[in-house]
Records
---
Amino acid sequence: MKKDRKNGSPGTAARRRTILLGQILFGVLLFGLWEFCSGRFFKEFWISRPSLIARRIYELALNGKLWYHLGATLQEIMIGLIAGMAIGVLLAILLAYSGVIQHWIGPYILALFSLPKASLAPLFVVWLGIGLASKVAMVILMVVFVVFYNIYEGIQNIDPDLDSMIRSFRGNWRKKLKWVIFPSLYSLVLNSLRISIGNATIGAVISEMVGSSHGIGYYITYSSSILDTTGTFAGLFIIMAVALILGGFVSLIEKKILHKS
């Protein structure tokens, strides 16, 4: 039984292969159509070509610029993502069990959540400079509200009988966190992390485009300023690859947790 659970049924494996094959074929069709249409139906200057974009990424990797810019962006994403997740989870737990205080503060959190966050990037540059701090602050802002609302709603939906059981055994807060809150929320935390990866990436790129001398967002802005369509698309594809890879890591973590449970 344990072996079947880890490897999955033959039907499940076949379905995964079918999905993977469909994804590859769709990508080949999409990029092949793009390559064919560029220069024939659309000017190459407007949309570049997948072959040119791949060559540019390869050249950036060879001359070291890819790793220089990518390293800066990944640093901003990882620090901001970890901090934003921690702040969001902690804030949600504290507010959910704060009694009437959550009703006092709730409308202000909703008002902050409704702000167009991209418009705050220039303010972070003014307040914190063009260094790492302003980029991390922007990433945290993009992450924290998503995590907060997911976890807060999850806590509201925890079975009240579990709370009653802990109280009947005179359980303290540490036991309540260990036996009630964390087991009920780990799937929500992972889901919040998966969603937040995209938001964190957007936040890092936006902040780099507003004010920076390195990072993928800076490279995209620089390429656009000199009308380098290929360079702009190269930066966009690198960002998408980063989001996909990080999302894949989260999926692997989730599978390992499910296998252990």
---
Amino acid sequence: MRSPTRKSFLWTVICFTVEMIIIYLAALLREHRFLYGGAAIGIVYLLVSLLSLKQKRKRMEHPGGDGNGNKRNRRKSRKRTLRGFTRIVLCLLPVLGTVKLCGLVGAAFLIPGRGDSVDSISVEVTAKNAAVMSADTGALLYQKNGTDRIAPASTAKMITALTVLDVCSPDDEITVGEEIRLMREDSSRAWLNRGDMLTVRQLLIALLLPSGNDAAYTLAANAGREIAGDRHLTNEQSIDVFMDKVNEKARALGLENSHFSVPDGYDTEGQYTTACDLAVIAKACLESPCISEIVANNRSYQKWVSGREVTYNNSNELLNPNSPYYRSEVIGIKTGNSSQAGACVVSAAVIDGKTYISVVMGSGKAARFQDSITIYDKIKAR
């Protein structure tokens, strides 16, 4: 039978080991909620240890018996106090380790947009808002006003594409309808006509390369009816259903400061995002085989189901070999431009085998590409 001392020490070791396993899993899986669990276990066990120590000291203060017994009890009390404090220190170590991990490593690896990363970069850009993330680890390497609420412009089409693929197969066929009338007159467009029939993948190309707002509404209206399971919904109703799904997708990605109101990202009251949130969306796009393949192309020729042939050029100058802003390492992702958002570009590049995401918002039409180049050059120079 184990003595109380050995049993107490054994429980302390078990508690310490469990906490460190939880913290390790948090870092490995980049899931910050595990950190809270590790800290909670440590705090609870710490309180139990303090209470146990206090009760033992009370028992030792009123033991009864002769003087020699009191001396022995005092010596035992000192030893038990020392063991108790040892237990407390062992309990505190993982708790303090959790705090340290949250502040120095966990925030960078587990919660994009917070804290500093050991691989952080220092760079000067002209854009009002910017963020740089490692697509491999989710670590935020740089941010400038990265958590300020801003208009997304057409960068919102990234989460539109992600949501569509949660509902539809890339091979599904869709006929363009009256929903394209819902886009604003001054919208960027893919020049879809009512009656055109094309696949979801072809519509995503029309959405992401020339930044077609008409493609956004066609995708949203049809996906909204799929979500609702009702083909008789009006275009307005189906798009409302779709946008609810978009914001549900945003929450699933862990976005804390984004709300999307329209599928094309057109300036709308109550619609906002942040540079850091856009980096998270971009990371999800790179993880989608369909989207990542589409956005890496500078040009795409397609023959639609209805027989119409089109060629779309990507609005991202970083991908255009004939542009002064061309960079061979760039693999996407999406441009944007509006009166509220300014000129924007969310891009990604593979440098030395690692993938990086750059978000440049509130810039100029040419400056957004130069800012992106400045960021990638800084990463190369590290």
